[in-house]
Every structure is written in structure tokens, then in C-alpha cells.
Amino acid sequence: MSRYTHLLTVMLVLCCCHQGFAQTAELYHYQDLSHIFYQKQVDSIKKAWICPAIYKEKATQKQYKEYWDDRTDFLTKAIKDDDYLYEQDVYKYLDSLINQIVQANKQLIPAKPLVLIDRSSSVNAYAIGGNTLAINLGLLTFSRSREDLALTIAHELSHNILLHAENAMKQRAEWITSDAYKTSMNAVLDSKYERLTRLKKIFEGYSFSRSRHQRYHESDADSLAIILLKKSGIHFDPTFFLRLDSADLQYKQPLKQPLATYFAAYNITIDNAWTQKRSKGLSTKVYNFKDTTSHIQDSLKTHPECVERYNKNLAARDAAANYTPIPAAIRSKAMKMQLWNMYMNMNLTACMYSIMLEKDNGTTDPWYDFMVANVISGLYYADRDLSRFNAVGVTPKEFISRDYYELQTMFEQIPREKLEELSNSFLTAHTASNSKKDEAAFHRLMKSLTTDADISQTSKTNIGNTFIRGNENSLYAEFAHKFDKP
Amino acid sequence: MKQLFLASLLVLLLTSNSFAQTKVFREVSNSISTSIRSIVQDGNLVGYLAFTELERANADSFRYKLNIMDENLNDIGVLNFTELKLDLQAVAFEGDVLCLAYMRSNFVGYGDKKRRERKEQLSNAFVSVFTQFVSLDGKIINTNNVKAAVNIMDAYNANFWDRNQIGHVLKHRIQLKNMAGKGFVCSFGDNSKSHLILYDATGKSVWQTDFTVQAEAYTMLLSQHDIYLLCQKTEKLIEGGYWLMGYNVDNKAAFTKKELRDKEGHQLSVKTFENDPVTGRPYLAGYILHPRKGNSILTVKQLGKGPYMGVYTMQVKGSGTGDIETAYSNWTEGNMTDISKKGRYQPTKTFVRFEPVFKDYQGNTFFAGTSYKRKAKWGSIGAAVVTSPTIIVPLWIIGIGGTQKAQARDAMIFKQDKKGNFSYVTAITTAHSRWLPGKVSAFNLLSPIDYYAVTNSDTKSNYLILSDKKTVNIFDVNKQKVVRQIPRKEGAVTTSIYPAKEGHIMVSEYNSVEKTRTFNIEAL
Hints:
The complex is a heterodimer. Chain A has two domains: about 35-235, no CATH class; about 250-295 and about 330-485, no CATH class. Helices cover about 65% and strands about 5% of the residues of chain A. Chain A contains 25 helices and four strands. Chain A has a four-stranded mixed sheet with strand order 1-2-4-3, sandwiched between helices. In chain A, α17 packs parallel to α19. The longest helix of chain A is centred in the N-terminal third of the chain and has 23 residues, at about 1-25. Classes of the chains: A mainly alpha, B mainly beta.
């Protein structure tokens, strides 16, 4: 009995330890970034993804291998560049969903795919063949229900099942090495006039039938996705297609309160002069180049025919379906990871605006205040580094809300001295109030970066190393590691 | 700009799609040429424009693309059109209309032509100045074509190395500026005369005149409803020979020709010809040239001989050239304690060669430039003395190395107030050059500093950007101190500074290893 009591005590201690760990490490660790976490997969992908010999024609086989290797390089480079990460809870959630689909469709999906969480905020997921698919954080934060996610995942699994990526590579290789292609290319050279137009026509014809998002591929994937979902017992919600249409308009969404109110919460009074555009430039004019606007809109959409897809698949809808919301904890983690990624990319206006939108959604999580301090100090750091313009990421007024425009104007026009003052006060206040060791250390790092007179690369590397010592597991170490590179 | 990157990306993507047909892509992309211009209104940069010749559409015409970007480098529009051979020369903006001035031809710029082809086409061949007016909804609202009196075969032969461009075939280049509330003024000179044309904002020619100038070059400046023309004809002095003339577009009257000389008749050089930031009236500033030594301006050794007698600022007070106030600061008169009669700044024993000259909002004129130090080459002199019995050796030592050496040192800033008091303001530490023998101490070999003056009318402040090989210094003229110092990145990154919207600079970083270029538009 005493042995069992002892065992029980040990188990309880272990459980408590695990609980404590889970509380302190809310998000992921630095080691969960793909260049470390998926290091072994890079080697195994390189070994496993060997181009099959399917063509007798040497040129075609060579071209096919080139595309095949490009795909491998794309994935391994993305892993090395930390385009992906592993976060236990989010991964488990996605994994359970994928498992449900895979288990119910074993004939079509004999092996479980390699699933990667892409850090991009773009509302998208993608299959690259080789039983691999990536799901963007942007999709996780955009989706309202488990069914929304399931539809997208099933759609991407269908691309893999139907070998769309592999077939596209084959078709491209065959086309590029075909006599018809060579003849048409020679015709371009032979022509004295309209060479670019002719060249474009050749590739437009090619793109129409072989592009990644060609219509019949998408349609096939939609149809198969519905079958996969039905077999898995997951409801299908076609309205998701319609919602996809607004996926690129997130920064057109207005704030619930005036911009000044969000800053007032931090005792910051916004000077009207900061938010009123002083530029005499063309950005303040009323312009309307129709061809350009339509081009931009189209290029932003990954699936421009959303309404068509909705109408086509509406009949497959289960009228009595109830949809399961994505757990708040999962969505919250995805949002935080997405925001941190925006910060890492120094996309500061978008990062701050997203924080404000989250506050509109009712969040009171102090992590967002930590990020507000990061954005303000990051902006001042960028200014010192002569890159405030890029950190603000000035976006034309047509694509953003009036509030976003005000915020980016403020970030652009706030005087350097005031920005320095705000950065210092934010970092001082939050370093003192921060309970988390790595967050406090990160603010100390930002303080050094924004106040040290020496702004040389060597100095930055030293500041970064100071943070890394003692916080090597922190996700914020990624920022400090930026200065490792010359 | 972004569109340009996209365009080149498109070419690269296309190229990567083929291993056998790269020649096609190379040939097609080689025939695509792009030129980038800043769009300026009232002296302020309001946007950028990329003009691309995409392809030859047929025997006569080409397809072109205009990418119009705002002051933040965001695309606001694309315009495609087909025209005869065009060569973009200038861009201006007024009344929500863009005016573009091109050289246009149906003969020059079409590649090599065979003798028979030339003979057949020559009778109808022309070179003209073509103005195109584009509204902000992407429409070409008007065009004008003014044939230029040039010898067509001379124009054809002027581009011997590249017959696919029109090039500079005019006697005086096209100048285009906006006139607030009126429209655009375009000027150019051909073999017979110089043209001055006023277009309204819809592109309609509302007034034009022509004039004959025996000048090698002239610069046009618009102030309110006046057109000022600063002309130069080099006679004895390379930097002299200036006069000011012009027209008022309301009464169409010509201004009295005003020669640029001081009271004693010394010629004046012009370092700046701009509008005063407060009055909006033109001012000119530069050196008073020594009548005899005024051409000794190529090396530090020559600078020491005193080619400049002082500096001046000439302020136009009203319309025309009748009411002009000039402040002179003549150091040859010997009344400046810090500056010798030859122009040497005594405390540092250096000569300063002024490059940017600009006025602040208080009416002062600032002269900035690199200082140069001369020293005797005691080693050479000693060696020559020691080897003097040999006769040949000292001649060789002195002949090759000379007796002086020179070095570029810190940048120095001087101020001339309204009354003509000329005083030292400060020195800015910049990278010193190596010592060069006096004979070969040409300024372009010695001065690695680039200067660029920026104003901000909102804050009524002036900045001077000084960039040497190690640092970019931003000097606040009002505060009289360096407010920012940006070390140039080490290794493969080259930092360059370009003009940007008012109160800003554009910082471009080119990474020669990664072959990438980034642009940042930063506030001062």
C-alpha cells in the first residue's frame, strides 16, 4: 500500500509540474521553430523525395526532375527559414481533425500526411504533394468552426489524393520540352514585332490549363473534399466559400472605438497632428486607375471564384448541421503566434491593428499589452535603424479602414523624440510589471537596442546574446538570434 | 518601383521555366527598358513614375507602360499605350494632372537603318517634343507635338552605339515645371531657337514664345507667374558667364537681361538657383570669381591660389529682374578675421570648396563643403636637397611627386546673413581622404562626401545630409548640430541616399551578395 501511495505522490508531483510548465510556457519554445523541430524531417524529405524515372525522353525527365527538386528545395528552405513551427495544442487540434478524416478514408489516404503549421497570416492552406500539407495560422484565426477548418483541410488532402501537384509537374515538364512549345518560342524570336505579347500569350495559355489554382482542379478537390467529410461524419458548410471572399479585407474592418481610446488605456494622448496626413503627395489624391485596382484585387485572392464554388456545392449542405466553434484557447494561441510572427517580420502597423481588433473582441490578456510595448519600442528601434518606413508598411488607403489609415499615419508622422519617450516609458512600465522572466528580459533587450548609443552590428549581437543566455528556450530568442547573422 | 521588381520577377520566372529557350527570354527582356522619374510639384516630390518600353508593336510604333506610384512607392495606377518612338525626359504634376514630356521621332531610335531605308524615310522624318497629359483616373486627356528643328541625320548619328534611343539631340534639353494655378511650362531649344510653351492643366497650349540665346545652357525656374531663365555662356572663366532673363505669363513681357557680376564687375558663379523658402522668389548664390585666377579650380593646389574672392547671395524681390538685392562677402578685402585673402580658413588652415548652398527660413544662406588641407612634402624636398649634386635625381623626385600634398578633411559649414556677414558655423567630422600629391589632388579623387540639402516647410527646418564611405550624417541647420548618424552597414551592403517627399530622404541599401535592394523613406 505504501508503495502505491508513494507512486501516487510521484504522479501527483509530476502532474503538478506539468501543469506549472503549461502555465508558464503559454506559446511555443524557440526550439519549436521549424529549423530546429523539423531538422530531421529535412534530411528524411531529401532522402525520400527522389524523383521517379518516368520519361524515356531525357530532356523531359531532366525537366521533370528539375521541378521535383525545386519542390523539395522549396519545402526544405521554408523549414530552414522558420516558415513553420510546432505548437503542441494547436498541432494536436489539427491532428485530431486530420486523423478523423484519414481514419474514415483509409482507402484514399493510406498514410497520415505530414502536417505543418505555416506562420503566415494569409488565410490559406496548401498541399505540395508528397503527402504533405501546410495550414496557415491565418486560416486558423479566420475560421469560425471546426467544420470550416475541416473543409479546407479536406480540400487540400484531395489535392494530394488526386496527385495535382505531381501531375502539374509532369504536365509542365512535358509542355516545356514539347515540340509545340519549342515552335511557339522560336516563333517569338522570329517575329520582329509584338514579341512580349506573343510570349505572354504562350504563358497565358499555359497558365490557364496548368496553374496551381486551375478551375477544374479546385472543383475536383471541392467535390472530393465533400465526400471525405461525409465519410468522416463532419458537416459541410458551403458558406465558408463566401466568407473566403472577405479574407483579404481584414484591415478594412473598422475599430469599435476611436484610435485615441486604445492609447488612452496606456495614458498616451494622441496629438491630432500625428494622425492627420501632412503629405503633399499623390497618396492624398483621389485616383482611380481601373485596370490596376482590378489587378491588385485578383492577385490577393487565392481562389477568386468563391461565389461560383458556393453555388456549385450548396446542394451538398446538411441543413440540420450544427457547427462546432474552434476552441477559444486554440484560436487565441494561433492569434498570438500570428501576431508574434508579424512582429518578427517588423510588420508593425498590421500587428498593432490586429491587437486592437483583438481588444475589440474583448481580450484582457496582458500578453497583448506586452505586444503593444513591443510594437512601440520596435517602431522606435526601426526608426533608429533607418527603417521606420518599412516597419510601418504604408498601405494605400483603398485597402484599409479609416482607422488603419489613421494608425499608419500616426506611426509615420509621430515625431522621433515623442516616439523615443513613448518607447522608454512603455518598456520601463512593462519590464517592472512583467511577471514572466523572458518577457521582462525581452523588454530589457529592446531597451538596450533603443537606448544604447552604439548601434553597430557587433553591439546588437552582444545585446542579443545577453538575452539568449538564460532565455535560450524562449520564443522571443528568435528576435535576439536575428543579430547572429552578419 | 515595386511594380518594376514584379516586372523583373516576371521575366525571371519566365526564364526559370525553360532551359532550352532562355535565349527567347533574354532577347525579349533585353528589349524592355525602363526609366524612373520623380514626379515634382512646386519643388516637392509627390510621387514616382516608371516608364517602360515593352515591345515594338509594328514598323512605326511601340507599346509603352507607365507605372505611377505615390510618394510612398505604392502603386496607384498603370497606363498602357502605343506611340511612335518616345524617350521620356521630364514629368510634372498640377491640378490632378500629370504632364510628361518626351522626345518623339518616327525615324531616330528605330535601330540601324540601311542606306536605302534612310533615303526613303528621310523626307518625312522628324524629331519632336511630345507632351502627354494624364488624369488621375488613368486617361490620356491631351497630347501636344512640337516639331524640333534638328538635323535628322545628325540626330540619327548621335546615337551611334545605341540606335534604339533618341537620346540628347536637342541643343537645350527639355525642361518641364508646373506653375501653380496655371498649368505647365515646357521649354527646350533646337538648332534655330528656344521654345517656351505654357499649357493649362487640360493640356491646351495657352501661350508660347521663343527666344534666341547664345548660351551653352540655361536653367528654368518658375516663381509665381514668372518664368526665370538662368543662362550661361562660358567665355574666359569656366564657372562664370551667367545672366538672368525671363518672362511674366500674365503680361507676356520679357524681363530685362541681368548679367551676374558684382559691383566691381567680377563675374559670379552660381551654386544654387532656387526659390527662397519664405518669399517664394528666386535667389542665386555662389562665388565671386577672381578675374585672373578664376579658372584655377580643379585641384587643391590650385584652390590655394585664390580663384574665389568671396561669396554672394542675390535675392530677387519682385517680379522680373529689376528689384534684386545682393549680399556680398568678399574675403580679398581683408576684413574677415578667420578667412585669409585667398579664402583659407585660418583656425584649421584649410580651404573649403562649397558644394551645396541653401537658404534657411530666417533668410540666411548656408555654404557647406569639404575642407582641404595642404602640406609641404618635406620628405621629397629633403631628398631633392640631398641628391641635388646629381641634378637628374632631384628633378625626377620633384617632377614626379611635387613639393605639396593634399588631403580632404571634415565638412565645414559657413553662414552668410542678410547683411553679408560671413561666419563659420561648425565642422562635421567626416572620413578623411588619403594624402595625394598636390599636382594630382583633383577634388573628385579626394572628396568622398556626398551632400544633399532637404527642407521641411511644415516645421520650417533645413537639413543637410552628408554621407561619406563610413557614415551618413544628418545635420539639423536650425539646431546647428548633427541629429542623426547612421553608420553604413559593413560588408556587401552599399547605402545610398536619394531625394524623397518633403522632409524625408530615401535610403537605398544594395546587398551585392544577395543582389537585393531595399528602399526606405525616412523622416528627418
